[in-house]
Structure formats: C-alpha cells, structure tokens
Amino acid sequence: PWDPLDFPDNQDAVDILQAKTTGVFAILDEECVVPQGSDQGFNNKLIKQHKGHRRFDEIRTKPTWFVIKHFAGPVNYCTDGFLDKNKDQLSNDIIECLGGSSNSFVQKLFQNDKKFADVLQKPEGGGQEPGKAPGGKKKKYTVSSEFKDQLSSLMDIVDLTEPHFIRCIKPNPQNEPDRYDRKGVTEQLRYGGVLQVVQVSRAGYPVRINHQECWDDYKVIATPQAVAGLKHVDDKKLRAQKLLEHLSTELSLPNPAHGLSWAVGKTMVFFKLAAFERLKFSRLELLIKSTTLVQAHWRRNLKMKAYKAALKHVRRAEAVIRLKQARLDLQRRRQQGAATKIQAFARRNSALRKYKAIYTKVVKIQAWRRGILGRKHAKEYKLYVSARKIQRQWRRYQDQKIYTILKKAIYVAQERLRLSVAKKQMQKLKKEAKEV
Predict the structure, then answer these.
(1) Where are the alpha helices (DSSP H) in 204-272?
(2) pTM of the model
(3) Is there a contact between 43 and 63 (Cβ–Cβ < 8 Å)?
(4) What radius of gyration, in Å, describes the C-alpha atoms of the chain?
(5) How far apart are CA 31 and CA 122, in angstroms?
(6) According to the per-residue pLDDT averaged within each range, which of 69-78, 240-249, 417-426 is highest?
C-alpha cells in the first residue's frame, strides 16, 4: 500500500562539477596540465562541453564568465586567474625550507602532504619518484583534485557511520540579538533543502503513532456498537486496523491520488495529512461538544448552589435590613427633634454673632471714617501752616531784595555825591593855586 515519492535531486548539478572527464574540475585540471593553457581556453572548453545543459549558462557580454545553476540558485563565476589559483604552486626552495623546519608541526605538515613528496623525498639510486604511478606520469596535485580527495575521504567516513545533521540557521547577517531577518531565514531554509524535506514529509505519511495510542485517541469518534465489538480484541494492530476501516466509512476519509490515506505497520500507524486532519477535527469537534455539555452541567450545579445560597442570604438580609430601617426611622425622629432644638439655638447664636460682627464693623467703619477726616483736616492744617511759612519767606525775600537794591542805590548815590564834592573841591584848589 505504500506509494513512491519524488525526492528533489541535484545529481545533475553534482555531475556537472565533478564528472570524471567532462566535469568543471576535470576540465580545469586538464587545462592546468596542457601547454599554454589559459583562463579563456578553460572558459571556452566549458561552454563547448556543457552548452545547453540545464545547470549551465554563459554570459555573452562577458566572455570570461560562466554560470552554474546550483541547488541553492545560480552563481556567476569569473575565470580570470582560475588556473593560477588551482595550481597553487610553491617554489621548491620554500617547500624544502619549510619541510626541514625545526618546528615539528610545520615539518610534518609538509612531509606528510603528498603534493610535496616529489620535492622533499628525492629518489635514491634508480628508484621510482614519489607521487608517480608505476609506468605512468607523475601525478599533479591541484586545489580541485585535493578538494575531490578530501570530499571522497569525508564521504567514506560518512558511509561508515550513522550521521545526524543539525541545521544551523542565522537569524540575521549582523549577528545581533533579538533581530529576525525573515527573508534571510527563508533563503537559508530553501537553500538547505529543509522546505523540500517538509514537502516530502507532507506528501508521505507525516503523522505516525503507535497502535494503542491510535485506539485511545480515535475510539471516541466511532459508533458505540463498533467500539463494543472491538474492545475485546487483544491484537492491537488488528484492532487499530478495524477501527480505521470503520472510521474511513463513517467519516469518508479523503483518498489521495496515489496509495492509501492511512496504513498500519508492525508497530506504528501512518496517516496522510488530509486523513489525519479529518480524524483530528472530528475528535476535536466531539471533545468540544462533550466539554460544552460537561461545562453546562457543572455551571448549572454551580448556579443552582449559588442561587439557593443567595436566596437564603437575601431573606436574612431583608430581615436585617427591615430591623435596621425601623431603628434608623426611630433614630431619625429623635434626631429631628434634637435637630430642631439645635437649629433654634444655632440660629440664635448665629444672629447674635452676626449682630456683634456688624456692630464691630460699624464701629471700625466709624473709626476709619473719623480717622480719614482727622487726617484730612490735619493735612489741610499742615498745608495752611506750610503756605503761611512760604508766604512769610517770600515776603521776607521781597523786602530783603528791595532793601538790598535800595542799599546799593544809596551807596552809588553817596559815591557820586562824594565824587562831585571832591571834583568841586579839586577845581577850587586848582583855582586857588592859579591865583597864587
């Protein structure tokens, strides 16, 4: 009953790289060996060999470029410097120097490497050169050949073990915490083949449970008659198979285009995704319905208990409230009588306080008014006295001014009179002098 599935395969992409004579690595090694090999010649050979291949493409505008369509996506390669990088040659002097280093680690690195053996281990007598096959040419070690050897060694080790792979996904290219690059993660999942693995798993039997778990989970959605007829079956595998046959008829499980919607194995039961979803939703629907009924019954009991307790408490509360209301009514009446007396006394006190306050304010207003009038009268009297002083000073000033003017005039008049008398006396003396 098992149906074959198509797994995504990239064997053609692997072949175009490492095919024995026509692969990219083989053509690169061949171009490194031939005389006057060039990067352009390597590119031309690739185009000639793989033109039309679905994994290969050329760039017409760039004659030294080619494209390999890998599983993860197309990658452009520039052949400039390919041959020099692939040869990765060191001079014999450097090899001999490092091979004879006093550092044991560096010395072992060079002496244990096959590509340096022809320089470090020179043949003695007529022996065969190291690194040279019997009756053949000396083997040339390049980067691509070394890579193929390492890959073959790794695959031999993997074939001898049972590897378990862990997919490591970088959440963002910046290696920062709490940052998720959705596009980058999706590309990593796609390039790592994780999405294809999920698709294959969904296309196959992604859900797998054991026989007892299948019986325990899905017997609740079968009819009571079917469950009663199967619960006495001791063979778990047969019981699970009969149960699923019954459910296939009852629930009309969808049939896939290839194979069966479910299959019973030796220890496990396998489900297609569509069949599992139908069974899961049917079971979930029954669980929801049953849960709703249990919840409704439980809530009814809770509400009934709460109602009875509330009714009992309400009656007690009504009696307490009525008693309290009667006491409050009596207390209110007493308070009203006392409040009337208090109000009368309070009004009397309030009126007396208002009278005293008004009387005090009137006295203050009278004193304030009399103060204003007294200050005004004092100000006017002070102004009158000041005016009298000013008038007296002004009159004194006027009289003093007139006195000063008169005094100066008298002095001038006296001087003139004395001058006139002196002149007359002088004239008289001159006259008497002439007469003598």
Answers:
(1) 211-218, 224-230, 236-251
(2) 0.46
(3) yes
(4) 63
(5) 27
(6) 417-426
